[in-house]
TrEMBL record:
Keywords from the UniProt entry: Glycosyltransferase, Transferase
Cellular component aspect of the GO annotation: cytosol
GO MF, one example: AMP binding
Protein name: AMP phosphorylase
PANTHER family for this protein: THYMIDINE PHOSPHORYLASE
InterPro entries tied to this protein: AMP_phosphorylase, Glycosyl_Trfase_fam3, Glycosyl_Trfase_fam3_N_dom, Glycosyl_Trfase_fam3_N_dom_sf, Nuc_phospho_transferase, PYNP-like_C_sf, PYNP_C, Pyrmidine_PPase_CS
Residues annotated as binding AMP: G168, S194, R195, A196, I197, T198, S199, T203, S264, K286
Amino acid sequence: MLFLKAKILDIDLENIVLINYDDLKNSQYFSQDRVVIEYKNKEIIAFLYSSKDLINSGEIGLPKKIADELKVKEGDIVNVSHADKPISIQYIKKKMDGNKLKKEEIYTIIDEIVDNNLSNIEISAFITALYINGMDIEEITSMTIRMAETGEMIKWEGQVYDVHSIGGVPGNKYALITVPIIAYTGLKIPKTSSRAITSAAGTADIVEVLTRVNLKVEEIKRVVKETNGCLVWGGALELAPADDITITVERALNIDPKPLLLSSVLSKKLAMGINKLLIDIPLGAKVKNMDEASSLARNFIELGDRLNIYVDCAITYGEQPIGRAIGPALEAKEALLALEDYKKAPNSLVEKAISLSGILLEMGGIAPKGEGKDLAEDILATGKAHDKFMEIIVAQGGEEKTSDEIEVGKYYTDILSPIDGYVTKISNEKITKIAKTAGAPNDKKAGVYLNVKVGNKVEKNDVLFTIYSDSKERLEKAVKLSRLLMPVKVEGMLLKRITRF
Ligand SMILES: O=P(O)(O)OC[C@H]1O[C@H](OP(=O)(O)O)[C@H](O)[C@@H]1O
Ligand SMILES: Nc1ccnc(=O)[nH]1
């Protein structure tokens, strides 16, 4: 065991500690060993690294997050000892071999993820194993329950509703319109979202352009009490804490395996105490055909039944981006425009938002069957959804803003059509890649604005889309990439000529 003096480091790391290089060499430890850091009966597991200059002999560098969790102050003496190897590794291996995991084994994996006992390498192996070998509904149920139980669980009086998309389609900012429509009618809709997983902007990234999203449970309760709704980030520590940890690894791999997709969504809903949930499954993004979409919908409904959550699913059009804006600020701007004057906003966005709202209003008994969408449109058209959205934004700690006031990247480049013709395809994947290369979602002002949609007629040199970024360098990279990928396909009426020779 080592006894070392704490030096608190202002670095954004959660599971790494540093000791002096010579101290490490003269100890029984090796670089990257898993160690227990103990202070006054509190323990945390971290990985050991060394530094020659940053840390003096006898000291241990603790990132602020670790120091806060252990309640250690600069100069306090902490104990360092070897940590046992996580038990989960054998279960991860079992899943890699294609075997079914027992409930207790899944619980152990989730617990060790939440306790920061697994490195990203090990979590990545687990996610890859799920991607390749999947899980059956029993395994998914256990994983979902444990993901929820390891964080706070909220209870409400009466029924609460929610809507959640499996994501994958660029420009999917519908929730900023749907949530206030539902909240306006008096139904409670405490919406949790994740940040981007595979896309250039998750709902939490978009809402964060306008207000705080990392609310504590008590704040969520207050906001919902005042407004009937909220739009918060599920990763805000207390709710289903394994979710955001696994999402960070999924994002790096750019994959969202089905078992984790199901448990990521439903663990947040279970923790949030949702009774009735609408799942949006865009066709053409994470699911490629109707069979796959229907099978995923059945999985959601069955998992919901096992968790006592009533689930309905909507399979929606997702073959091209929703609306025209892709990237956090651009999407916030477009959603605001739809709330201010829906006739000026892209039809695909408005149509999606009011269709989903309509189903929820029917699920909640606010509208008779077949009349929900018209009621939703009316709430949007008369500005009631706009006012409700502003109430929510302000209650969460933001300020009222108009769409004109939302700033987007100061550098931009127009990408022009090389020929006269028609837009025959816009690739979701390619548009996302370009928006991410421009900096989204971390650079909130980065992204892509589509000037055209599939079916539009264009002339040579018309603007197809504009790429925005707050960095010149990233913009240049995104422009180069877009010339290579050609995400918007323009074709003339003559597609190909085939001759005899
Ligand atoms: O598109 P990608 O990044 O893969 O998936 C993540 C997005 O999908 C869900 O959408 P919503 O909260 O229903 O709007 C998540 O919360 C997140 O915003
Ligand atoms: N994997 C996920 C997809 C969409 N939303 C989520 O919260 N999680």
